[in-house]
Amino acid sequence: MSTTETNANIAATTTFGKVPTDHMFIAEYKNGKWNEGTLTRFQHISLSPFALCFHYGQTVFEGMKAFRMKDGQVNVFRPLKNFERMNLSLERMCMPPLSEELFMHGVSEMVKADKKFIDEDEESSLYIRPLVIATEERIGVKVSDEYLFIVMCSPAKKYFANPIKVKVETEFTRAAEGGTGFAKCGGNYGAAYYPTHLAHLQGYDQVIWTDGQNHEYMEESGTMNVIFVVDGTLITPALSGTILEGITRDSILTLARKNGMKVEERRVSVKEIQDAFESGKKVEACGVGTVAVVAPIEQIDINGKKYTPFTGDNSQMAKMKRQLLEIRLGIQKDENGWNYMVK
Ligand SMILES: Cc1ncc(COP(=O)(O)O)c(C=O)c1O
Question: Can you give the pTM of this predicted structure?
Answer without folding.
Answer: 0.96
